[in-house]
Amino acid sequence: MQKQILLKKRPKETPTHNDFEVVETSIGTPSDGEILVKTIYISVDPYLRGRMNDTKSYIPPFKLNEVISSGVIGQVIESKSNRFDKNDIVLGSLGWQEYNIIKEDSVRKINTNIAPESTYLSVLGMTGLTAYFGLLDIGKPKEGETVVVSGAAGAVGSIVGQIAKIKGCRVVGIAGSEDKVNLLLNDFGFDAAINYNTQDVGVALEEACPDGIDVYFENVGGTISDAIFPLLNNFARIPVCGAISAYNTAEDIGPRVQTHLIKTSSLMQGFTVGNYSSRFEEGIQELATWLKDGRLKYEETITVGFDKTIDAFLDLFKGANIGKSLVKVAEIEK
Amino acid sequence: MQKQILLKKRPKETPTHNDFEVVETSIGTPSDGEILVKTIYISVDPYLRGRMNDTKSYIPPFKLNEVISSGVIGQVIESKSNRFDKNDIVLGSLGWQEYNIIKEDSVRKINTNIAPESTYLSVLGMTGLTAYFGLLDIGKPKEGETVVVSGAAGAVGSIVGQIAKIKGCRVVGIAGSEDKVNLLLNDFGFDAAINYNTQDVGVALEEACPDGIDVYFENVGGTISDAIFPLLNNFARIPVCGAISAYNTAEDIGPRVQTHLIKTSSLMQGFTVGNYSSRFEEGIQELATWLKDGRLKYEETITVGFDKTIDAFLDLFKGANIGKSLVKVAEIEK
């Protein structure tokens, strides 16, 4: 038997344990062309909150009483596929359960010689690619420009800021604690960092961005984001990656942005990393090179134990994590 | 002596006559390299409202107690320039006064054989070019897509809708009266039109856009614009040209747009026509061809008499005009 996590109710606002159900179910055995994968790491991500609502989006909503899924690193325990051997380490979008039986084409092998397996869910995974394509393809940062990123100590934000530094920009991060601010300044090399819990973001931004804002990488929405618009330079670019402040509220009301966009000829572009799937290899290559060269660092907040998966997910909305949030479910068997 | 119109006070919200002062001043005589131009048409435009505030924008604010300026068609009365002859018809950004003495490089001659002189302030002028570049360069409408335009019976909106029809789109206009709705449907060839004063815009849009919205050309902002976002298709484009509902209010509050942009990977891009100045000739050529071929129609609301200039400007915020608003100050002398 194994445990799995189902969506029991659609969360009204901030999700709670009551919205989920942990059940026991049999592990089963793979048929031809299938593999049995033991879960090693589960990726918990803010965007999953959107899939818990029953609304149209770029990805279908989770169904009630079905298992939740996200990025998972697993180890092949039993293979009925020619493509995989026992003990292979694989990556895919799999269920929140201790074991998954899946078709051979639903995962791919990863090369753990390049980097530790967890990085395929963080800096070399969707998180890193989200930062890479959002910043470079939409934000188009130019040397000497000012780039502001919110959720700056988070999975995506911390990578965004470092790539912007690699591109020669002045980088300002917004985060929610002194620890995070120190991390941004001391470990990730940001030029300035703002603690939105203790500082007036508008005032602090004006001080941190004496030449205005050329790129704002949007992870949070809400009042933090509102403070950005009056400081936009002409032809500013805003990759809109996330709006975590809005995910748990029905009423997301604030100053409209139209007049700011007109006055500065600025651009806001929503995106999801899937838009760039044809270019993933390019992104992974460059991220891996920066990682190898020590130009890119990453942090992971790792919660240990399958039973802590829901906690790790709920923590995302408390700003508890630094870098990528992962749940470590099991050790790899050598 | 002649009359001129000064900005006396910065309007608090909706401008009134009290914000302006009409004074008498001498006409003067041109020096070498200057011309004396008699005002024939004055263009009154919503964007001028923004210039009456003392805030940073793409164009400097008007100064208090100085003459207001905008697009003007005039006739050369006296020339001390080799470039201009008496009676030439010229176009430039000139003062709201009956006569302007200007340097020879501040205006250009227009060819009234192609189209009536007033069109250089409307369909062949900044208005037409705004519609042309905003729709085609940012909106990128593709055949069969649904294009929605607000302020649809106005100077820019009426041209936007017709260009979208030329490009093979389904075109839905939003306007503020039955007369305007009828004009859109019967004269400008829109596929559907919504009267925001009598209809629930959200409900009407859902009905008029069964395949969702691919391009929204934003002229008005506010609650009309709010109703667009839930209907955006994936990869929708929103050229943000104007937000007339916001120009006269300090509090422009509404639903934030970030989550909509993320869910649909949509783009909002503010712009002003000046961004495209290097391509004006291209735009004028194509607009003139469509005009000649009868594929593009235009409407003008012409107010007669210099003394009515302020009224014509104030009327813009009452939705009184259809098509381009112009003040006819004098007849051309043959």
CATH topology of the largest domain in chain A: Quinone Oxidoreductase, Chain A, domain 1
Distance between the termini of chain A: 23 Å
CATH architecture of the largest domain in chain A: Alpha-Beta Complex
What's the number of extended β-strand segments of chain A?
A: 16
> How many DSSP helices of chain A?
10
Supply the CATH class of the largest domain in chain A: Alpha Beta
Q: Give the total of domains of chain A.
A: 2
Q: pLDDT average of chain A, as an integer? A: 95
Structural class of chain A: alpha/beta
Oligomer: homodimer
CATH superfamily name of the largest domain in chain A? Medium-chain alcohol dehydrogenases, catalytic domain
User: Regions of chain A with pLDDT < 50 over 5+ consecutive residues?
Assistant: none
Radius of gyration of chain A: 20 Å
Biggest interface goes to: A-B, 38 and 38 residues
Sheet bearing the most strands of chain A, described? Answer: 7 strands, mixed
Provide a descriptive summary of the structure in words.
With 334 residues, chain A is α/β, with parallel strands linked by helices. The first copy, chain A, folds into two domains: 2-122 and 299-328, Medium-chain alcohol dehydrogenases, catalytic domain (Quinone Oxidoreductase, Chain A, domain 1, Alpha-Beta Complex), CATH 3.90.180; 126-275, NAD(P)-binding Rossmann-like Domain (Rossmann fold, 3-Layer(aba) Sandwich). Chain A has helices at residues 48-51, 126-139, 155-166, 178-186, 201-208, 222-226, 244-247, 258-264, 280-292, 309-315, and strands at residues 2-7, 20-25, 34-43, 69-79, 89-95, 99-103, 107-109, 146-150, 170-175, 192-195, 213-217, 232-240, 253-255, 267-270, 300-304, 324-328. In chain A, the strands form three sheets. In chain A, strands 3, 4, 5, 6, 7, 15 and 16 form a seven-stranded mixed β-sheet that branches. In chain A, strands 10-9-8-11-12-14 form a six-stranded parallel β-sheet, with helices on both faces. In chain A, strands 1-2 form a two-stranded antiparallel sheet. In chain A, strand 8 (146-150), helix 3 (155-166) and strand 9 form a beta-alpha-beta unit. The longest helix of chain A has 14 residues, at 126-139. Chain A is globular. The model of chain A has no long low-confidence stretch (mean pLDDT 95). At the A-B interface, strand 13, helix 8 and strand 14 of A face strand 13, helix 8 and strand 14 of B. Strand 14 (267-270) of chain A pairs antiparallel with strand 14 of chain B.
